[in-house]
Amino acid sequence: NNLSDLSFSDRLGSLKISEFLWIVGLNLLIFQIPLQSVLSLAGYFDELATLCLVIAAISAFIQSKGKLEQLSQFGRLTLVCLGLLVIVGMLGNYFFRIQTDARSILIDIYACIKFVIAFLSGSVAFKDAERVYVALVGEVKLLLVIMVPFALLNQFVDMGMRYDNRYGFWSFQFLFGHPGSFAAVLSGFSLLLLVDYRKNRPWVILC
User: Fold this and answer.
1) For residue 122, what pLDDT is reported?
2) What is the C-alpha separation between 28 and 33, in angstroms, rounded?
3) Which of 22, 119, 121, 142 could crosslink 53 through cysteines, CB 3.0-4.6 Å?
């Protein structure tokens, strides 16, 4: 059978060890903020994830024998624009002496480009990883089933998940310490679900 013809449980059972590890890594990113309250090293999960994605993308590029098709035309254009942005920023800093410490300059450059680099690397690393996508979508739906009842109950009972009252409604932060952080996670969930909008429309509405 084709992968698209398999049930969710069959697809999940056919996950490779590498794919399973990617799912674990993505979960560490999703729950990075709650984990920071019990593990200080969790603050470095995004840096570690970016590094792993870059390594995976380089590996995929080598396995394709250096074919640029691994990265889309949009991705290549984005990479060029990103490089130009860094060059302009460094030239501006050199002429106006805004920052002179080399370590701080490198940290700032990395902070500005890491999310774009992670996105581009992920688009290469997960190009054919349908099983990873299916498993993540299944997890997202499970999390929504858990989160939505808590969000509704939050309006009537204080379970420690409130942040403040806005326009007569209690804001909801779940386990993420701030409604904005929770909203960012839901935005990521929405992007995953929108890949197959017709099938996932009810879940997108829940987000």
Assistant:
1) 78
2) 9
3) 121
DSSP 75-123: HHHHHHHHHHHHHHHHHHHHHHTS---HHHHHHHHHHHHHHHHHHHHHH
What single DSSP character describes residue 72? -
Joined together, the tokens standing for residue 91 give 């030239």
Question: 3-state SS string over 143-200?
Answer: HHHHHHHHHHHHCCCCCCCEEEEECCEEEECCCCCCHHHHHHHHHHHHHHHHCCHHHH
Tokens 């056919």 — which residue? 14
**Does residue 61 register a pLDDT over 90?**
no
Token pair in block for residue 179: 């409604």
25, 36, 39, 85 from 45: Cα distances, Å: 8, 10, 11, 26
DSSP 8-state symbol, 6: S
Q: Any bridge partners for residue 19, and if so which?
A: none
Band the pLDDT of 145: cuts 50, 70, 90. very high
Burial 15-43 (b: 16+ CB within 10 A, else e): beeebeebbeebeebbbbbebeeeeeebe
Q: What are the backbone angles phi and psi of residue 101, rounded to the nearest 5°? A: -80, 120
In degrees to the nearest 10, what's the CA dihedral of 172, 136, 62, 16?
A: 140
As given in the structure block, the two tokens for residue 123 are 């688009």
Does residue 9 carry a pLDDT above 60?
Answer: no
For the entire predicted model, the pTM comes to: 0.67
